[in-house]
Design a protein that fits this description.
about 325 residues; Rossmann fold; two-stranded antiparallel sheet; binds NADPH dihydro-nicotinamide-adenine-dinucleotide phosphate; binds the ligand CC(C)CCC[C@@H](C)[C@H]1CC[C@H]2C3=C(CC[C@]12C)[C@@]1(C)CCC(=O)[C@@H](C)[C@@H]1CC3; endoplasmic reticulum; membrane; 3KSR/17beta-HSD
Length: about 325
């Protein structure tokens, strides 16, 4: 398929899964114009240098954005609108998890139980998290993973789905997005013991459905992906890298039962890159696209149907619009 002149923006494109998506997109779409939307200039420049080593002729720009800071998102959106008159792929990938420890008691208790596969696929119940509030008064994980991205999309609306050229919004969600941690009456997940990351990723799944309802008629399509368990700075924040390296053989064995044990960012980015090669209109907007890798190392994309009601999606969307208005007025 001819891909001349396509534009891709990747939030958090300087590291981990985002950087590998950047690398793979440049290979898949040779004429691609790439924008790394990152919070740190030196880290973004270092990533650009790495990408230029393998793709010396690539057009790669940098826009600074801190998705947890709404003022910064407004500034970045303004800059992006000056740079591009359309966007083909907007990867909403930047994300954090505020982990303070692993619940090992829960781990050992469920290791040989029927919860085994659910535990390794979702990580549900295994992580202890802490709550933090941004200087703008938002719960940090919600602001970074969900709200900052929502504001970015809304601000870029004028250049999305333009001139008969569809825009794909591709979210890096997670299999950790479980409904039990999501409360529609507390979308920021304030004053909770844990489950902030899970709530933010479930919100992502709900929001994606809402965006399809709102914007498909304008040529804007939203899809959620799950990269599985991948070794990045995010997972090195849970357990040290030496530990993960030590248990690498266990990952291979676990893949027999849990094909989301992707380990590396190349495997983990499979669904995110695969989506860029599909006609967005032909995709199921109510599916999560999950990167799988089997025991033999074969990568493939698994489609998982989301059970989310339109009224929940609409409710979340309206709450985000209202929250955004409180910033717009400041
Ligand atoms: N690793 C895994 O197993 C899984 C990861 N994911 C999701 O994948 C996505 C990418 O994470 P991953 O590659 O693993 O982790 P990394 O920590 O390697 O990458 C995260 C990226 O997000 C950026 N980022 C974090 N906070 C902000 C912010 N406030 N503003 C702008 N950029 C920010 C980071 O920038 P900086 O380098 O400056 O910190 C970095 O570029 C996340 O959404 C994560 O939730 C989902 C499922 C599994
Ligand atoms: C495998 C080892 C012997 C023990 C590791 C236990 C846990 C620390 C991991 C087991 C499943 C993992 C997991 C995640 C984090 C680390 C575990 C809990 C995630 C929650 C990381 C972020 C995500 O988005 C999820 C998709 C991961 C799901 C699995």
């Amino acid at each position: 398929m001819a891909t001349g002149g396509k534009v891709a923006i990747i939030t958090g494109g300087n590291a981990g899964i985002g950087l590998t998506v950047a690398q793979r997109l440049l290979t898949e779409h040779p004429e691609l114009t790439l924008c790394l939307a990152c919070r740190s200039k030196p880290r973004a420049e270092a990533a650009r240098d790495v990408l230029l080593l393998s793709h010396p002729k690539a057009s790669i720009s940098i826009v600074l954005v801190d998705t947890s800071n709404i003022k910064s998102v407004y500034q970045a959106a303004k800059q992006l609108k000056q740079m591009y008159n359309h966007v083909d792929y907007l990867y909403l990938n930047a994300g954090i998890m505020k982990v303070v420890g692993v619940n090992w008691d829960y781990f050992w208790k469920n290791l040989f139980s029927s919860k085994f596969i659910h535990m390794f696929t979702t990580g549900d119940g295994l992580l202890k998290e802490k709550e933090e509030i941004t200087e703008e008064g938002l719960e940090t994980v919600f602001a970074t993973n969900v709200f900052g991205h929502f504001v970015l999309i809304k601000e870029l609306e004028d250049i999305l789905g333009q001139n008969g050229c569809p825009t794909q919004l591709i979210w890096t969600s997670s299999s950790n997005a479980v409904e039990t941690h999501f409360d529609i009456d507390n979308i920021q997940h304030r004053n909770k013991e844990g489950g902030h990351y899970s709530s933010s990723k479930y919100s992502t799944d709900v929001l994606s459905i809402a965006l399809n309802i709102q914007f498909n008629n304008k040529g804007i399509y939203s899809h959620v992906t799950c990269p599985g368990l991948v070794m990045t700075n995010l997972t090195f924040g849970i357990l040290p890298s030496w530990f993960w390296n030590l248990i690498l053989p266990i990952f291979w064995l676990l893949r027999i039962f849990v094909p989301t044990m992707n380990y590396d960012t190349y495997n983990g980015s499979e669904a995110l890159v695969w989506l860029s090669k599909q006609q967005p209109e032909s995709l199921d907007a109510r599916c999560k696209y999950v990167s799988h890798c089997n025991f033999w190392g074969t990568r493939y994309v698994h489609q998982h149907k989301l059970k989310i009601e339109d009224k929940t999606a609409d409710n979340l969307y309206q709450q985000l619009v209202q929250l955004e208005q409180t910033f717009n007025h400041k």
